[in-house]
Specification:
This protein is 28% helix and 23% strand.
Length: 534
C-alpha cells in the first residue's frame, strides 16, 4: 500500500480546468463506450514525465507517452522490448547508446516522430527551467543527445552509465512532441502533455478528475502489453478521491473500477469480501521508511540513530498496522532491486534491550515518566510527514515503539511542497520517504551529498566516499561487480543508521472483477494498453 516518490517526486499542482477535448468525462462513459475509472488519492503535480517526481504522475503519463525501449517483467525478472526504437546498441564502455527509430509513429498533435523528438525530450529534461525532480538525477553523467540522421540518435554520457537502459524505461523519459514542447515551453508542457502513447490528454477538472481518451492512430505498442494497436478502452479517467474511505466506497458502489493504494484495512476487507481482485505490484526502489536526519540534535549522535533502528519492530508493524498486506523492510533497497544486500538487512534485528543500552551509553537517563533526559534536555524527536502518503498510522506505531525505550516525539503533517521545504531545511529528526525506481542508481537521488538543500537527501547524509562508490557502481557494466558495489553502499548506509526502513514500496490496486488485461511494470505501476472491461 501507499508510497509516493517515483523514479521521482512533486511541486506545483496542475492548472485548473485545462483541456484540449470536449469529450465526456463521465465515469460511466457514453453509451457503447468502454470507460475505466481509477480512484487516486492525490492530485498529480504535473503531467510532464520529465519534470515530475511523483510515482502517481508517472503511472498516469505511461498511458500518454512511450519510451524508446520498454523494460517489462518476465519469468527471468525483466526483459527489454522495442518501443519507439526498433533496436539499440551500447558502446563497450557504456558511454554511448545508439537507437534506430521507428518511422511510423505520430504524436497526438500530428507531429511526426523522429530523432528531433528524442533530442528535444532529453534537452527538455536537462533544461534548468524544467526543474526536473527525478529525471535529471536519473540521467547520471549525461553529456548530450546527438542526431545522426532522422532515424538514428545517440545518447552520450561523459562516463560509463550502466543504469541508463533501465532508467529510460522507468517513465521519466517518455518521448514528447517537439512541437508541443516548443509551443508550451518548459513550464507549460505539464498542463498540455503531448506524447505518442495509447491515450491522449482530454481534460483536467481541478481537484476532481483527469480524463484521457483513446489514441485511434496507435499501432506501435509491444505485443506483450496485450495489443499492438489502439487501446480497448475509449476513456481512461483518474478520479481524485483523497479520503481513503471515500475511495473504497466509490469502488464498492461501482463509481470507480480500480482503487489505488487503499489503506491496509480496506485491502484486507476487500479481499475477504470475495467481490474484488487485488493486484499488488512489487517495485524496484527504496522501501517506505523514515530518513533520519544525521545533522540535527539528538539524531546527530550515531548511538541515538542506532537505538532507533533497534527499537522498531517492522514485522509487528506490518502484521498489526498494515494487516499483513505489505512486506516488512530491513534495508535501503527492496528485495527485487539489483544490488539488494541480505547482510545489510540483517544488521538491526528488533532488540529494545540493545536500544536501551545504546541510549545509556550515549548518556541519556530514563526518568520516572519513562522519557530520557540529558543535560536537562528531553530525548525529543521532531517528526514531519506529508499528507496523502499513508504514513500517519505507521508513524503512530513507530512513536509508540520509540517511547518504550525513552523517546518522546511530536508529529506534524504538512502538504507535500511545505514538507519538502522542511526536509531540505533539516527541521525534522524523522521524515517520510519511499522511492519507486528502475535501477539501484536510484540511491544517487536521495543519498548524494548535493541533494541535501534542494533534493531528496532528507537524511542530510553527506559522505563523499559513498557518492564516489555510487558513481563507480553506475560506471561498472558487469552486473555482478555492479551489484556488489551497491551492496557496499547499502551496508554503509545501514551501518550509519541514516534511514529507518519500514515496508517495501509497491503498487496496490484493488479492482472490480470485470477489469481485465492490466499489465505491470518493474517499478510498481500498471499499464492500460490492453485493459478492458468484461
Amino acid at each position: 500500500m501507499g508510497a509516493f516518490l517515483a523514479a521521482g517526486f512533486a511541486a506545483s499542482p496542475l492548472l485548473a480546468a485545462c483541456g484540449t477535448s470536449s469529450k465526456s468525462s463521465s465515469s460511466g462513459g457514453k453509451s457503447g463506450t468502454q470507460t475505466l475509472t481509477m480512484g487516486i488519492a492525490s492530485t498529480p503535480d504535473t503531467l510532464d514525465p520529465g519534470a515530475t517526481g511523483l510515482a502517481l504522475t508517472l503511472l498516469i503519463t505511461f498511458a500518454m507517452f512511450d519510451p524508446l525501449v520498454w523494460w517489462l517483467p518476465d519469468s527471468s525478472g525483466g526483459k527489454f522490448y522495442p518501443g519507439l526504437a526498433k533496436s539499440y546498441t551500447v558502446s563497450p564502455d557504456a558511454t554511448t547508446y545508439t537507437f534506430k527509430l521507428r518511422t511510423d509513429v505520430t504524436f497526438h498533435d500530428g507531429t511526426k516522430f523522429d530523432a528531433t523528438a528524442v533530442k528535444a525530450t532529453y534537452d527538455h529534461v536537462v533544461d534548468p527551467a524544467t526543474k526536473s525532480k527525478s529525471g535529471l538525477g536519473a540521467l547520471g553523467p549525461y553529456k548530450e543527445t546527438k542526431i545522426i540522421d532522422p532515424t538514428t540518435v545517440q545518447i552520450i554520457f561523459t562516463e560509463p552509465n550502466a543504469s541508463f537502459l533501465h532508467q529510460q524505461a522507468a517513465g521519466n523519459f517518455g518521448i514528447a512532441s517537439p512541437a508541443a514542447l516548443q509551443k508550451y515551453g518548459a513550464t507549460g508542457f505539464g498542463n498540455h502533455p503531448v506524447g505518442s502513447g495509447p491515450f491522449m490528454f482530454s481534460k483536467y477538472v481541478s481537484g476532481d478528475r483527469l480524463t484521457l481518451v483513446k489514441n485511434p492512430a496507435y499501432k506501435w505498442g509491444p505485443e506483450v502489453l496485450g495489443t499492438t494497436g489502439p487501446a480497448y478502452l475509449d476513456e481512461l479517467i483518474f478520479r481524485i478521491v483523497a479520503d481513503d474511505n471515500g475511495r473504497y466506497n466509490a469502488l464498492q458502489s461501482g463509481q470507480v473500477q480500480i482503487a489505488m493504494n487503499l489503506p491496509a484495512n480496506s485491502i484486507s476487507a476487500a479481499s475477504k469480501s470475495g467481490k474484488f481482485q487485488q493486484l499488488t505490484v512489487p517495485s524496484i526502489g527504496t522501501p517506505n521508511g523514515m530518513p533520519i536526519n544525521v545533522s540535527k540534535f539528538p539524531t546527530d549522535d550515531p548511538k541515538v540513530r542506532e537505538a532507533i533502528m533497534y527499537a522498531v519492530d517492522q514485522e509487528k508493524l506490518v502484521k498489526d498496522v498494515l494487516f499483513g498486506v505489505d512486506t516488512a523492510a530491513h534495508t535501503v533497497l527492496t528485495a527485487i532491486t539489483p544490488g539488494y544486500s541480505k547482510s545489510s538487512a540483517a544488521l538491526y534485528s528488533y532488540n529494545p534491550d540493545k536500544a536501551n543500552a545504546l541510549l545509556d551509553e550515549a548518556g541519556w537517563t530514563k526518568g520516572s515518566d519513562g522519557v530520557r533526559t540529558k543535560s536537562g534536555q528531553k530525548l525529543a524527536l521532531n517528526i514531519i510527514l506529508f499528507s496523502g502518503a499513508g504514513f500517519e498510522l505507521p508513524t503512530q506505531f513507530v512513536v509508540s515503539e520509540l517511547a518504550k525505550v525513552g523517546f518522546t516525539a511530536t508529529t506534524t503533517v504538512q502538504p507535500f511542497a511545505t514538507a519538502q521545504g522542511s526536509f531540505n531545511a533539516g527541521e525534522h529528526n524523522l521524515g517520510a520517504f519511499g522511492y519507486y525506481g528502475a535501477d539501484p542508481y536510484l540511491l544517487n537521488i536521495w543519498v548524494n551529498s548535493n541533494a541535501i538543500k534542494a533534493g531528496f537527501n532528507w537524511s542530510h547524509y553527506a559522505n563523499p566516499e559513498i557518492d564516489k562508490l555510487i558513481a563507480k557502481a553506475n560506471s561498472t557494466a558487469a552486473d555482478g561487480a555492479r551489484g556488489a558495489l551497491y551492496e557496499q553502499v547499502s551496508t554503509k548506509l545501514m551501518q550509519d543508521a541514516a534511514y529507518l526502513p519500514l515496508w517495501d514500496v509497491n503498487g496496490a490496486f484493488t479492482m472490480a472483477k470485470k477489469v481485465q488485461g492490466i499489465k505491470t511494470t518493474l517499478n510498481g505501476y500498471i499499464l492500460f494498453n490492453g485493459a478492458k472491461l468484461s
